[in-house]
Amino acid sequence: MSTPPNQQRREESAGLMEYSTESLVPFGPIHPALKEPEYFKLVLEGERIVNVIPRIGYVHRGLEKAAESRPWVQNMYMFERTCGICSFVHSLCYSQAVEELTMYQVPRRAKYIRTIIAEMERIHSHLLWVGLMGHWAGFDTLFMWVWNDREVVLDLVEAISGNRVHKSMNAFCGVRKDMPENMEDRIIERMKFLTDRARYYREVIDTEETMLKRTENIGRVSADTVEKLCAVGPMARYVGFKRDVRLNDPYAAYDEVPLDVITTTQGDVHALLRLRLDELVASANMVAYAVKNLPDGPIRVKIPPIIPAGEHSSHCEAPRGEIFYFVKSSGGRTPDRVKSRQPTMANLPTALELLKGQTLADIPIVLTAIDPCFGCMDRMSFYDTETNKRWTWSGEELRQYGINYYFPERAKKKSGIKKAIGPPTNQYPREEF
Amino acid sequence: MPRRRAGAAIPEMFRFMLEKPSTEAYPFKPIQLPERFRGKLDIDPAKCTGCQVCALVCPASVITMVDLGTRKVGDRELKVRRPLFDLSTCIFCGECVDNCAFNALELTKQFETATPNKADLLMNKAIVK
Amino acid sequence: MSETLAQLGKYAEEVGTKVTPLRKNESTIEVSQDRLKAFVAHLVNDLHVRHLMTITGLDLGQNLGIIYHFSMERDTIHVRTTVPKAKPEAVSIIDTVPGAILYEMELHDMFGIEFIGNPWKDQKLLLPEEWPADLPPPLLKTTKADQIRRRLGLEAAKP
User: Who's near A402: CB < 8 A, 6+ residues apart?
Assistant: First the structure.
């Protein structure tokens, strides 16, 4: 992408050094005049985004290094805390990678229980995400209703595992706790309730003017780009790829429980909303099936604390995409190397391609649509090449700007939002050159 | 594609106005906890033998074994140790509970453990023996 | 064995290596650095193994190992290569697989491997700006956690 010379000079003077090749997004260093570590730098032309320069690593905890000095079982609890919403899938993927190094098989009942908990986690995550989309689009009522329904699935998870978020149900070659007695009917009834609610929300997003205006025709990217940049999860499925680990390489009980992989070719953020709500319904059906056909047997096989030498990897389908773990053992009490790759890392190049060409008001919607899982959007800085202004906004200010951009009649009624309409007056001093 | 209209959610809004609120009344009323809730750790000192398996399996370095002297068994001197729990780093996983062969440990339903004094979270019930 | 793996086995023999099957649908191939680019190009363009899951770095004592994990339906293919620790320069596969850019930047941060051909090979992705130049990359076995903490001025961890 060759930029015209005066634009290049303007961008360089702002301290945003730029490297660009044909289809990739440039990353750059932090500008020395900005005191706080910034997350996103966006280069604008008037209203349209031309370039995005991200900086990640603020919540990097060095888990891979820490894993090399801890025993195998303790690592499972540590990797569970990589993420709050995909915590069970992280511990499941790590367990699967380690179990293949041993000679033990996972009992069938444990596989079914793992599937049930993983699908409940997916329901929880998608409900949370739909609520967040409502919040960023300005439809706070939807946010409140969806998060109310989220309590239903969280109560079920708490009744089974004892905790709402970090379930700690996994063990090597099994699960730690059995399903409680007499819960089958309650689970099936609640899954039916969640299915009805998801169908209602689907109708709301299809007809409600607020959501349609904010999400239709926004966030389009070509299928070729998605394949080249190796996107995973719903980001690959919303342009038509049938890429789902549960289908391509079944683990746990996914080869026995009927699976319904949803893909769509619509290709915009509205399609992502429909896709995740349909996945929610499919997950609820899977939980109901698994609970009805739960086989008998043991739930766990105890294995010795020393894992034989070897290398193995495993991948699972988290609510956000594909999680990958690689484990190397040299026959000791601690692993030699553990590598964990989260889905948001794989989706990041695609997300940055998505942002190009969008307007300023669409940033929160597009960034939430990829379902990011890092401490995000607390600070963003902007540089407008047309007016040569630079300013910083918090996430809340950006959200208000987006709402007032699309629904200006709302802005006139409320009074304290004036500073969010258009670039605010606190600008950094321009550099002379 | 159904007709676009504003206010698709209004009938639902009326339904919500007639239902009771979803907010829990805690702390003005006690909260309902499930059977398997994992709260603060508790030890039964009579059952603990000082085998230190709990200290070896804890992922969060909560448990340290404290020397309490020796005792005679036959003509040998055996060390007596008991666990000291620093519950400020506990992650409530329950590994110690699962691995204790004498059923001395239990995760209670107590979750109101916030305190301005860190010494309150040191559990030394097993040491006084 | 799937057809892709059979074709891959034939190609590997032509090039001089072989496909070693591991447990549960995984296979590993050892390729030298000078053959790597052609091998990955054949894998992606001719055999249509398009999805790169991630790139892992290993500390093998004298050498640094780099493993590319490709995924195709049920099969997982690990392509391994090594670079010496004294001169950690590796070949970048960005022109074949553009999605590898972040993984190569992460390896540069964590192991100090320079990927020649990567346009951002000197940028930091995960490490902070204040990372001192004389502190070795964190994931090497010789770099201890205490060393990092002391050098960055962080407080000591609980024993």
Answer: A136, A137, A138, A214, A360, A361, A362, A363, A364, A365
**Domain-located, residue B59:** yes
Q: Which of B35, B59, B60 sits opposite A180 (nearest CB)?
A: B35
Q: Is C127 on the interface with A (CB under 8 A)?
A: yes
* Rounded mean pLDDT for each run of 10 residues along chain A, 433 residues in total: 44 38 31 39 72 70 87 92 88 93 91 94 92 86 89 90 90 92 90 91 85 83 87 90 89 90 88 92 94 93 90 91 92 91 86 81 81 53 64 69 77 50 41 34
Nearest CA distance, B69 vs chain A (angstrom): 30
What domains appear along chain A, each with residue ranges and CATH number?
5-59+360-420 (no CATH), 63-218+249-259+276-341 (1.10.645.10)
Q: Would you call C76 and A28 a contact, using CB atoms and an 8 Å cutoff? A: no
Query: Does residue B116 lie within any of the structural domains?
Result: yes
| C73 contacts in chain A (CB < 8 Å) | 248-249
User: Could you give all domains of chain C from N- to C-terminal order, each with its CATH number?
Assistant: 3-123 (3.30.460.80)
CA distance A421 to chain C (A): 34
Phi/psi at A40 (5° precision): -125, 140
- Among A129, A156, A192, residue whose Cα is nearest residue A321: A129
The tally of domains found in chain B comes to: 1
Helix (H, G, I), strand (E, B) or coil at A277: helix
Task: Decide the pairing of beta strands A380-384 and A40-45.
Answer: parallel
Cα gap A75→A81, rounded to integer Å: 10
**Strands, DSSP E only, in A131-195?**
170-171, 174-175
* pTM, 2 dp: 0.86
**Which of A60, A64, A227 is opposite residue C139, by nearest beta carbon?**
A64
In one letter, which amino acid is A145? W
Closest CB from A30, A100, A230 relative to C23: A100
